[in-house]
Amino acid sequence: MCFYLIVKQSLQRAPLPGRLTRPYRINMDLYLRGALAVLYVTLTCNGFIIDSRFPVIKDGKTMGSFFGFSVALHKQTKGSNKYLLLAGAPKEKALALWNVNETGAIYSCPVTTELNDCARMDLVSSSKYWHFVTVTVTTVSSPYERVYRLNG
Q1: Domain of 11?
Q2: In 3D, which of 86, 142, 149, 92 has the Cα closest to residue 118?
């Protein structure tokens, strides 16, 4: 804040003839406020990074299944309260009951340090398309909603 006050006071002094006219001083004041706002946000906001010291590594069951092509973190609230990694494997082989070769699969993995503790989730499908190329987790915001009705 001290730096801002010093710069603002120096801009308010009488300008040299032909230089630093009033619109320029206003623009400089806005730029300075914007720069300070960006600096404040970058110093006070926190993000997440990939933990390289304690990674969670999971291994797929089948080679070539593209296990981990899409990954999402899910919090299970029914039953036991725990976090799960949902990993998609779009080229996973079909179960023996189906008449197709590659249906894709989705795996539920607990957040542990074990490599092979993922379990295939039972989802029914009979198409030949890559399923689970992307994993989407849906969240719900506030309980309020607005309903707009057209024509009545």
Answers
A1: 2-44
A2: 86
